[in-house]
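Section 5.1 Outputs to date
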Amino acid sequence: MSAVREQLPEGRYGRSEDERADRRLKVVGAVLGVGLVAMVGWFGYDYIAGQKVSAEMIKFDVSAEDQVKVHLEVRKDEDAKGYCTLRALAEDGAEVGRKDVRFDQPVDRIDQVVTVRVTQKATSSELMGCTSE
């Protein structure tokens, strides 16, 4: 009994077009993948390295009719100067108060309670963001 061959003899006819296309797609995919990872890493580093002042609103108190007290924690480089913007919101979402708080102290962490004056009763407060100078 003889065995029946189902494939072409190895090496006789060269590579098939499918194998060449598969390899080309793998190379292009790998290059694009490495490029995408490098780009995301670069943008992430640039975003983090560019921030000299960052803050977090710990809590807020809206018990008074004409003001909101906001507990703010700011982290920054010791030599950095900047400000953070806070705003108070009414029940319908309208802005009823806004305040820019400057931070020029030569320390790297500031924990402070800030009072934001409002035009009507506020129900919440929001940290809009921080900017370094």
